[in-house]
Specification:
Structural class of chain A: mainly beta
Largest interface: A-B, 28 and 24 residues
Order of helices and strands of chain B: EEEEEEEEEEE
Helix content of chain B: under 10%
Oligomer: heterodimer
Distance between the termini of chain A: 33 Å
Structural class of chain B: mainly beta
Radius of gyration of chain A: 13 Å
Number of strands of chain A: 11
Number of helices of chain B: 0
Number of strands of chain B: 11
Number of helices of chain A: 0
Shape of chain A: globular
């Protein structure tokens, strides 16, 4: 399977704990995105990587959130000191370099903060 | 501030008939529009896209229409099949920067056999 993969698929944690999610994009894609989706809403943009460089961050990405993409391959999203409001589906997407390239999404990581 | 809006939360259509899903946007800088389909517990799956230089794009049973003056686009599915039952999201991106997508809130399509 050559699509976008995410791990874990589900994560339950207690408030105040740190969590880390991983995304493996489609191998030839240079662009990588993280989105967050809550119930009844569409996905909302969090951050964007072009290769290993993090080029844009949404104001939704508080200082408790950090993302990396070492070597321009897989990416990790870490949430420190989780809060109940962080409960959501975290989606990763990758895309090619062309101006009109669609983004392909992974299955997401569902986070539940108790 | 919702820049992409899908005002119909749900739509039910008989199998074999046409499904029309609508989407409006407010940002005139958007120049690329996409439709995604989402099943429960899965990520969104890309369906079809259109750039602002076109007003129609067709792919099999799926056609997207863009009316730039009205800032409106629609997705037509014909004929509708039970397997099309899912939540459909409209998305848009701008001309510069990250090209990140702005999504609507989705329309749940139910195709009745």
């Amino acid at each position: 399977d050559t699509g976008v993969s995410q791990d874990p698929r589900h994560k339950i944690t207690k408030r105040g704990q740190n969590v880390t999610f991983r995304c493996d994009p489609i191998s030839e894609h240079n662009r990588l995105y993280w989105y967050r989706q809550t119930l009844g809403q569409g996905p909302e943009f969090l951050t964007y990587f072009q290769n290993e460089a993090q080029l844009e961050k949404s104001r939704l990405l508080s200082d408790r959130f950090s993302a990396e993409r070492p070597k321009g391959s897989f990416s990790t999203l870490e949430i420190q000191r989780t809060e109940q409001g962080d409960s959501a589906m975290y989606l990763c997407a990758s895309g090619g370099d062309g101006r009109y390239n669609e983004q392909f999404f992974g299955p997401g990581t569902r986070l539940t903060v108790l | 501030d919702q820049q992409v809006k899908q005002n119909s939360p749900s739509l039910s259509v008989q199998e074999g008939r046409i499904s029309i899903l609508n989407c409006d946007y407010t940002n005139s800088m958007f120049d690329y529009f996409l439709w995604y389909k989402k099943y429960p517990a899965e990520g969104p799956t890309f369906l079809i896209s259109i750039s602002s230089i076109k007003d129609k794009n067709e792919d099999g049973r799926f056609t997207v229409f863009l009316n730039k003056s009205a800032k409106h686009l629609s997705l037509h599915i014909v004929p509708s099949q039970p397997g099309d039952s899912a939540v459909y999201f409209c998305a848009a991106s701008g001309k510069t920067g990250a090209n990140n997508l702005f999504f609507g809130t989705g329309t749940r399509l139910t195709v009745i056999p």
